[in-house]
Amino acid sequence: MALLTILICIVLLVLLVSWAKVNPFLALLLVSVIAGLALGIPLDKVSASVQKGMGDTMGSLLIIICLGAMLGKLIATSGAAQKIADVLVKTGGEKNIQWALVLAGFIVGIPLFYGIGFVLVVPLIFSISYKYKINAVYIGLPMLAALSVTHGFLPPHPSPTALVKLFHADMGMTLVYGIIIAIPTIILAGPLYARTLKNIKSEPLATFRAAELSTAEMPNAFNSFFTALLPVILLMLAAAYPHLNIKDEFTNKLVAFVGDPAIVMLIALIFGTFSLGIARGKKMSALSDVYVDALKDIAVILLIIAASGAFKQVLIDSGVSSIIADQIQTLNIPPLIMGWLIAAIIRISLGSSTVAGLTAAAIVAPMISKYHINPNLMVLSIGAGSLVLSHVNDSGFWLYKEYFNLSIKDTLRSWTMMETLVAVIGLVGVLVLNVFVG
């Protein structure tokens, strides 16, 4: 009954948004309350569950999305995105721009959390789309596939890192195996699948549509690339720092502080304000107007993402994940597939890839030693399963839909299908690799 209730709520949500044309924020809020009541959460606890879900989601994303939008708007209006696009096209040629973006997405995605990576690469995708009149979904989805794969498969992202520790796996080997599986997964789910999406019309957010500038008006290539990639550089340095084995407590705390994603974005925005703004003769008042416009453009997106967090939370608080886990454990399935399946069903039901991964890990952890499973491969199997079928209960679904300004139908066809391909191809890669190293 719990699974049936979730299915009914998801169908209701889709109908409210696509058929009844209800604002997604209101639809998500309404369905969250209905789901909470239907799943047995006490009347006096439903509101608290909704508020907790919204607060937790915004607590981790608000600063990053807002600062990322400001930086993205600055990169677009200053001509930096146009300069980066010009350099990429001249280096690889216009025909290969999709592959250049995939490579950039993979490099950016390794050290960055998904939300940060998304708001950083979107301005670049849209800038190239506008300048060269290329379909935004066609060139953008493969880049986002690269981000998604790194988020689900590769440390230092939260879920795979936590799974490595839980399974006592080897961080380095997990990363190596993850990259081996990631490359074909990205190619198949990204550029190759995107060829079927050329007819999807996308009118991305106007906030990233900058006026065409002359060469003299644009910043130089180094300034453009360095400012855009500064968050990546800072996070990569922070990720590498622990391997230096420095014992000084103050230095460790300072690096931890500076390496926090929110602080990284703040530092990057401050640097960009000077490098792309004040140093090039812009007044602070004009730059402030740019930042205000950026926040106005993403206000609705923030509300929708917050409401998707509320929906996720009522599903978690209802104990649905435990019900799913108990039912699946009775099946006689190979452990690597079992881990993927548990993560996949929880992901589909709850929407959170991190929750799906960690819940599945707790269930299959005893199987690792019992069946002598390679723990590095189990990390990747669960990571792949935690990405499957992103839909209306996932904040990433709405982030993509609203930024690319697509219908739910086209979002399901592009985003949801891409995520599902990543999950399935990832599992196949794990099973193939298990033949050789398991």
How would you sum up this structure, described in words?
This protein is an all-alpha fold. It is about 80% helix and about 0% strand. The protein has 19 helices and no strands. It has helices at about 1-20, 25-40, 45-75, 80-90, 95-110, 115-130, 135-155, 160-165, 170-195, 220-240, 250-260, 260-275, 285-315, 320-330, 335-350, 355-370, 375-385, 395-405, 410-435. Helix 9 runs parallel beside helix 17 (about 375-385), helix 9 (about 170-195) packs across helix 19 (about 410-435) and helix 14 packs antiparallel against helix 15. The longest helix is centred in the N-terminal third of the chain and has 35 residues, at about 45-75. The two termini are about 40 Å apart. About 50% of the residues are buried.
